[in-house]
Amino acid sequence: MTIQLREGELPAIAVHGDYAIVAITKHGVALARRLARTFAGADLYYMDKFAHGDEARQRIQLFSGSVRLLLPALWPAYKGIILLISLGAVVRMIAPLLKDKKSDPGVVVIDDKGEYAISVLSGHLGGANQLAREVAAALGAKPVITTSSDVQKTIAVDLFGRRFGWEWEPESEEKLTPVSASVVNEERVAVVQESGERDWWSYDTPLPAHIRVYSSVREALADKPQAALVVTHRLLSPAEAPILQNGVLYRPKVIALGIGCNRGTSAAEIEAVVRETLRELNLSLRSVKAVCTIDRKRDEAGLLEVCGKYGWELVCYTPEQLNQVEVEEPSETVYRFTGAYGVSEPAAKLYTGAAKLLLTKKKAGNVTISVGLIDYGERRRQPCPSDES
Question: Where are the alpha helices (DSSP H) in 164-317?
Fold first, then answer.
């Protein structure tokens, strides 16, 4: 459904995240879609004439009319607004909306080629400076920041890992402010990273001395930090829970689900198997990045519905690609029907580049599932160039 923008009318928008990404050109839309795929907690808006056909499934909001008429609705609804629009046009459009630096959202402008991410408004208090850095890192652009007082190079707790798609657990939200205070006040802060991308420090200076990185919760607890940022795909045990007394729990996108299913399997059955399997493995649903399968399942309604609900990639491989992977239990029956000796196991291995999976294969009703982990601590194999999502 397209938002019709009209003079004198405040458009109705659906707010799901903390940030809005807005584009109005063909190249801008391509960049915006690329950014939205990894930048967690961002809602994407662009002109309906550039529709790709998957907007409803991706919760992308299309609009028709002048983007100037969209901004009054976005202004009070988001912490930050990322605009792929020329800087001069943005300045003119936001001028009537300005109130004060304590309440205005952070505004970042990206040029049409994605070369620069410019902090335009509410850079320091509104977080646009850090937002510009995170957006620039996600796109491989250069951040442009002019605030003279923005000199404390440290971790922005509410944006930590955002460019990689990391999400914090909802129960951690109330800890964002006290943990941020610990970071800026130079208290002893632990960053516990068990999984996820390792290049989250984007400054050209060393990590501040009061922030220390640990590889496990147990190791961090032994040092009794005053605050913690915990990055893991695991469900924490009761013994590990004290780390979150003044801590934020982040979920990196590191889990790939290999799934095979009978034609017509319902989304409810697929989702139930996924949830049950992850619980059995003590893994977080929020850390799932992709569902991987055979190309003949690219139009499987149940898979598409589940992927759409959670925003997961659906990555499809040909039988030839799947057969290049060594599997523990090749199936002649599966081969007769699909041309591949396995689906869930080789698909998960192809996507993660892992020789060993967390779960090789489990059959449950109409669904076969495998679970793989993307290890960013090592150089990993990327999905095949011909994969489609």
Answer: 176-184, 217-222, 267-280, 301-310
Report d(CA 228, CA 206) in Å as an integer: 19
Give Cβ neighbours of residue 293 (< 8 Å, ≥ 6 apart).
258, 259, 260, 300, 303, 314, 315, 316, 317, 343, 344, 347
Q: What does the mean pLDDT of the chain come to?
A: 91
Instruction: Identify the three-state secondary structure at position 280.
Output: helix
Whole-angstrom distance, CA of residue 176 vs CA of residue 157: 6
Report pTM. 0.74
- Encode 263-282: b = buried (16+ Cβ within 10 Å), e = exposed: eebebebbbebbeebbeebe
What does the pLDDT read at residue 284? Answer: 98
Q: DSSP characters for 289-341?
A: EEEEEEGGGTT-HHHHHHHHHHT-EEEEE-HHHHTTS--SS--HHHHHHHSSS
Q: Are β-strands 359-364 and 367-373 bridged in parallel, bridged antiparallel, or unpaired?
A: antiparallel
Please check whether residue 125 is in contact with residue 141, taking contact to mean a CB–CB distance below 8 angstroms. no
- Helix 128-139 with 26-38: angle, nearest 10 deg: 100
Residue type, 210: H
CB atoms within 10 A of CB 36: 25
Beta bridge partners of residue 317, listed in sequence order: 294
